[in-house]
Amino acid sequence: MLILASFWFIAPAYAANGFPPLMRGRMPIDGKRMFRGTRLLGDGKTWEGLIGGVVFGVFVGSLQIFGQDYLPQEIAGLPRMSFPIVFLLTIGTMAGDIGGSFVKRRMRMKRGDRALFLDQLGFLLMAFLFVWPLYKIPLDIMIVLVLLTPIIHWLSNVLGYWIHVKRNPW
Fold this sequence. Notes:
By secondary structure, the chain is an all-alpha fold.
């Protein structure tokens, strides 16, 4: 039940994080501006991806909000989703992803380079941080997500690579 509750809670964030590559955006958020000799974010962070990620994350969360009252009683212990929680999870996810890209550029890493834990957990930790003022996430849910998200992130990247949406399988 704990794993189900964890995935139920984080579904909008996972949706928001996974959707941007499908947008194949062309308009970089940083406008190709530089900061200390390197791009602020790079070509991988686009307005289309940002907006698409937010919209898709909110869409998934909206399905949860509208469907949660129809779930069987056996799984009634799931976290109660609301629009503010969904929105904050989604915005936090995108902020974490963009922030991770900014950090990678400061470390002189190129788009697609591996950044252990920054790529896999940056979006998750920012989602937690953004939603925290409104919803105190149970510690057991946070632990499950911190442990399982790197594995899920890797598997989704392998899938994205196989379907030619990602350049690297990591």
